[in-house]
Amino acid sequence: MNKTADYRLTVIVPVYNEEGNILRLESELGKFLKTSLLPACVLFVNDGSKDNSAKMMKEVCLRNKDFFYLELARNGGLSAAMKAGIDYCDSEFVGYIDADLQTTPEDFNLLLEQVEEYEMVMGIRAGRKDSFVKNMSSKIANGFRRSMTHDGVEDTGCPLKVMRTRYAKRIPFFTGMHRFLPALIQLQHGKVKQIPVRHFPRVAGKSKYNLRNRLIGPFKDCFAYRWMRKRYINYEVAETDL
């Protein structure tokens, strides 16, 4: 049996070249697990890191009974790492946080207060501690995405989210899908709640994003989402004798 089935929440942490943050992740996530409103575990997903992340991640899992890992055979990007984590998650809820710790695991409890009423609860980064260029490109991309998806989400890039696992597993995954998680939950008639959370500067490692993958990629993905939305199949089983 999948070990995550013993918990109600699995926190997925995609990792790519984050050796400078692994020990901080162990400390901060360990603190959260002790105070979590739901019995929770952590699932690291190593996305083909080229530094010492994989070795450190495995050492953390050896000394913490509620920490687990997946190691992908090659780098596939954030969407692939998230899909792998969700595919290997059997808890009732699945959460997501970035390895850079610009949001704090402690704020998961703000989201967990609402999970019984919504299919997704997500953060909105309050007082963002990013550069002017990063903030501006994010604001432009978010505005364009809202106009294309009509999801009403203010900050889809906030790396603090909790979803019902059965909805997360039905999300049609594609490269760039991590930018459309709220809209993809809404395609299933799921309800999405947004809650302000704290935001912090990155203190270790390097951002994997630049102006190109913050603007050009998301713009292209919006058209892909619009195409998919018109063809999305959503059904409910009324009865079966299986």
Description of the molecule:
With 242 residues, this protein is an alpha/beta fold. It has a single domain, classed as Spore Coat Polysaccharide Biosynthesis Protein SpsA, Chain A (Alpha-Beta Complex). It contains 8 helices and 7 strands; from the N terminus they run βαβαβαβαβαβααβα. It has helices at residues 22-35, 53-63, 78-87, 108-112, 132-149, 165-168, 181-186, 211-231, and strands at residues 9-15, 40-46, 67-71, 93-97, 120-126, 160-164, 192-198. Strands 3-2-1-4-6-5-7 form a 7-stranded mixed sheet, with helices on both faces. Helix 5 (132-149) packs parallel to helix 8. The longest helix is centred in the last third of the chain and has 21 residues, at 211-231.
Distance between the termini: 22 Å
Number of helices: 8
- The CATH class designation is Alpha Beta
Strand order of the largest sheet: 3-2-1-4-6-5-7
Please state the average pLDDT score. Answer: 85
Largest sheet: 7 strands, mixed
Shape: globular
Instruction: Give the SSE string.
Output: EHEHEHEHEHEHHEH
Number of domains: 1
Please count the beta strands (DSSP E, at least 2 residues each): 7
CATH architecture descriptor text: Alpha-Beta Complex
Please name the fourth-level CATH homologous superfamily.
Answer: Spore Coat Polysaccharide Biosynthesis Protein SpsA, Chain A
* Spans of at least 5 consecutive residues with low confidence: none
